[in-house]
Amino acid sequence: MGRGKLRIHLGAAPGVGKTYAMLAEAHRRLERGTDCVVAFAETHGRPRTEALLPGLEKVPYRRLEQGGVTVAEMDLDAVLARRPRVALVDELAHTNAPGSRNAKRWQDVEELLAAGIDVLSTVGIQHLESLGDIVESITGVREPETVPDEVVRRADQVELVDMTPEALRRRMAHGNIHQPDQVDAALSSYFRPGNLAALRELALLWVADRVDAHLQRYRSEHAVSAIWGSRERIVVGLTGGPEGRTLIRRAARLAEKGAGGQLLAVYISRSDGLTSASPGELAAQRTLVEDLGGSFHHVVGDDIPAALLDFARGANATQIVLGSSRRRTWQYVFGPGVGATVARDCGPDLDVHIVTHEEAAKGRGLPVTRGAPLGRLRLAWGWAVGTAGPVLLAMLLNAFDPGLAIDMLMFLAVTVAAALLGGLAPALASAAVGSLLLNFLFTPPLHTWTVADPRNIVAIVVFVAVGASVASVVDLAARRTQQAARLRAESEILSFLAGNVLRGETGLEDLLERVRETFGMESAALLERAGDVEPWTCAGRVGRGRPVERPEDADVEVPVGDHMALALTGRVPPAEDRRVLAAFAAQAAVVLDRRRLREQADRALALAEGNRIRTALLAAVSHDLRTPLAGIKAAVSSLRSEDVEWSDEDRAELLEGIEDGADRLDHLVGNLLDMSRLHTGTVTPLMRGTDLDEVVPRALGGVPEDSVVLDVPETLPMVDADPGLLERAMANVVENAVKYSPPGEKVLVAASALADRVEVRVVDRGPGVPDEAKERIFAPFQRHGDAPRGAGVGLGLAVARGFTEAMGGTLNADDTPGGGLTMTLTLHATGASPEDGRVTAPNERRAS
């Protein structure tokens, strides 16, 4: 059986009817005789949605305990065993409860599809992973549950479930989405008209892009070359000339007139690489196109009009923008020009705009190129072959006399060899010497400078012409090859620099070493000075050459501004290398500035952090230390007083108060010391295999005995941890949970194994923490909400996370289903294999 089909109902916001549409589709398929079952459907108590459930077979859900609450999850094994034709799986982005086979519901759906079961599912646009930041900026709410975009894009069908913001707000006001007591808050926050309109636009654009990709794939698969004008796509043809910016802006205005218009700029270069385009101008035009929201494309083609039309049809373009020709009037004798040819051959589906500009009819300059030197050794060999080669060949042929035709071919071969080695001049010399020798030694009458047969005259002339032509072509190819190799090397170097500018990875010394190696220098240094009369100082230097104290002492000086220069020693490079050297010098200055700014930022951050900690510490000392100290002093003063006769009960109560105050002080000072160790980096965990069922109970010593329910199985694998740090971290987390739990509500401490990790969850039923504050509560000296003064200085969770991360684990806060906060502490199991996630059994490990 093949892979199943996935159909997703995509909605812009909660309540638009995704689940309703999924259930309605199931009823339609059921009427056609398709075997459909409900694997999981979340109705959220909405009556109209629940009314569609009767008549559909439902696979019983799994019931799992999560934080003392029973939650329902899809029973994947039961659905696979039932093997329906179609399974309904609601909320694709849902996170499964701990203990499930897969962490996410979309992974369950992948297993159903692999088993050949078709799936109907739902997802909201706010749950797409790539749109999380955008949705948060619109609504102010970060969706914790997301699904990778690729999962949704791979769906066989994506149906948009749409509703106007006004209709959705009416549905909310009528109580069809949330409970009545939640309607006002929802309408004034998440369900504001602007939020819903923005989310709806996101959903429509996402689906439109997917439809466009499907259309392009269909056109490619079916070889459709006709233009389908589903949206305006404007192609602007660039030549690299100064008129390109005018054309780009004109094309951008055309694209803006149509909804969803696209701008595509294309530059077509000849395959031989000979072009008059300015690289700097092309780079500026590329930047302009991207700033205007378009895309830049570089295409190679010898027939410019045909290549432009092929690109436009391949991109399903609707309009082409070209500039008026820069040809002068007399130049039209060579042809109609690119614009006229494109307008003639474009057909009825493409509109061609010819835009006037200041460069029109001013003429097009020819490219100015200069041959690259071939090297002294190659020139020497070329002249040797071009002059001595024909003489030696004549001596050899005179001994064997193979005939005039073979003689001429052999001399032509020597001419080509001279061209390959030394270029044009040695080849012409070889052709001249060879023609003279052919005439004197091998053309009747022999040993005279005359030629009796006119056909031999023609043969010698053709020999000289062919030799010169072949030599010029070979010489040009050799020079172009060397030029291409050099330009490729330059482009690789500049690409390296551009990549490092964007990533900010290369340090100053690394960059200087790259300069030294690239140009074969002995040393490279970056010199700077504070003013025109100040002495030069070395900001960075690499190499073993002589030290350079001033730019004037170097073999190569590349200035960077008025007070900085790149100084190189070893040799004097050719003038064309200075362009790349200037780029290196500018980048070196940027790297130096970035390094100094980073150092300043680090110092400022360290100072700010130190000031913040000192301020918070002073506040903690002034407030939180004063209360237990005052209590202890009052109790001691009372006990020492001789004016009052204390009973044994009163004396015991005062002593208990002293003990409680001392314990609070001990706990507070311990957290302060731990925090200082974490900030100074002196925490060094002693990692070893640790049993949670031994450490966790010891961590509960600071809380009342009946305040915690412990569920740590003895069969759990051991974890890599420092027992002391783990105990301290668990104690702080549990004490925090007990502190905020309502009276009579117990805190659940449960542990379970998951792949190569072990999770310890501390679940409370307190007021909980909003999503935007879940990270803030782990910062030092932070207390959430209206915590009383006696609740501590806000170091417990910061110390717990610091110790956990020092042991290679994580500590995160999540909502408890039904209300409250769940702290999840995750550690690596001892002996876990990163490749397959295998964890050695506890009895095996303890026996080893």
From TrEMBL:
Its EC number is 2.7.13.3. It is a multi-pass membrane protein. Its main location: membrane. It is found in: Cell membrane; Membrane. The keyword Transferase applies. Residues 835-848 have a biased composition (Basic and acidic residues). Keywords: ATP-binding, Kinase, Membrane, Nucleotide-binding, Phosphoprotein, Transferase, Transmembrane, Transmembrane helix, Two-component regulatory system. Residues 620-831 form the Histidine kinase domain. The chain crosses the membrane at residues 379-397, 409-437, 457-478. Residues 828-848 are annotated as: Disordered. This is histidine kinase. It catalyses: ATP + protein L-histidine = ADP + protein N-phospho-L-histidine. One of its GO terms (molecular function) is ATP binding. SUPFAM superfamilies: Adenine nucleotide alpha hydrolases-like, ATPase domain of HSP90 chaperone/DNA topoisomerase II/histidine kinase, Homodimeric domain of signal transducing histidine kinase. The keyword Transferase applies.
